[in-house]
C-alpha cells in the first residue's frame, strides 16, 4: 500500500497548493490551461486504449458497462458523495459553500480521472502482485501536476479535487489488496484489456475538460471490469461448451 499512499498524499498536497497558493490565476489562463489539460488527457487516454488487442471485447465492455452504470447511476452516487463532503466542509461558511456544484464537479471529475486510467490499474496490480511501485510513483507526478492546475482553476471547488485523494486511496488500495488474492487469475491479457477500457474513460474525461459535450463518465466505470469477467469466466465456459 506504500505506492497507493504516496499517490494519495501527492494529490492532496498539490490540490491544496493549487487551491490556496495559485487561486489568483486570471480567467484567460484558466481557460487555456483547462483546454491544454483536456487535450493532454485525451492523448493519454487514446494512447492507452490503442494497446488493446480485442477491439470487439472493448466495444462490448463499453456497451455493457454503460448499461450497468446507468442502471446503478454511479454518477449520481459520486455527486451525492461530493455534496455530502461539501456540506461537511462548509459548516455554514459562505466561502466553503460552493455555488453551482463546483466542489462536486471537482470531486467527481478528478476521482474518475485519477482512478480510471491504465496507470491506476496496472500500478496497483504491480504493487499487489510484485511489490513494485515505479508505475504509481510516475502516476503521482502526473496526478500532482494536474491537481495543482485543476484545483486552482475551480476556485473554492478546488477542494473537491483534494478530496478525490480519498477515492484514489480506496480504489487503488482495493485493487492492490485484491490482486494479491487473485494472483493466479489476473493474467497479463486481462490486465491489458482492463487498462484499455480504463484509458478510454480517461479520454472521455478529456472531452469534458474541453466542454465539447458533457459525458457521465462515472456511469461507464463498470466497463473496466467487463474484460476480466469475460476472459476469466465467460470465455473458458464457452470454450468448454463448444468442445
Description:
The chain has one domain. It is 78% helix and 0% strand. The chain has helices at 2-21, 27-49, 55-72, 74-90, 102-116, 118-130, 134-153, 158-181, 188-210, 226-242. Helix 5 packs antiparallel against helix 9 (188-210) and helix 6 (118-130) packs antiparallel against helix 9.
Keywords:
single chain, 243 residues, mainly alpha, globular
Structure summarized in a few sentences:
By secondary structure, the protein is mostly helical. Helix content is 78%, strand content 0%.
Helix vs. strand class:
mainly alpha
Helix content: over 70%
Largest sheet: none
Topology as H/E string? HHHHHHHHHH
Q: End-to-end distance, in Å?
A: 42 Å
- Taken together, the total number of domains comes to 1
Q: Which runs of at least 5 residues are low in confidence (pLDDT < 50)? A: 92-99
Using the alpha-carbon principal axes, give the shape: globular
pLDDT averaged residue by residue: 76
Rg, please?
A: 18 Å
Strand content: under 5%
- Could you give the count of β-strands? 0
- The helix tally amounts to 10
Topology of this structure?
Blueprint (H helix, E strand, L loop, with lengths): L1 H20 L5 H23 L5 H18 L1 H17 L11 H15 L1 H13 L3 H20 L4 H24 L6 H23 L15 H17 L1
Helix pairs in contact: 1-7, 1-8, 2-7, 2-9, 4-5, 5-8, 5-9, 6-7, 6-8, 6-9, 7-8, 9-10
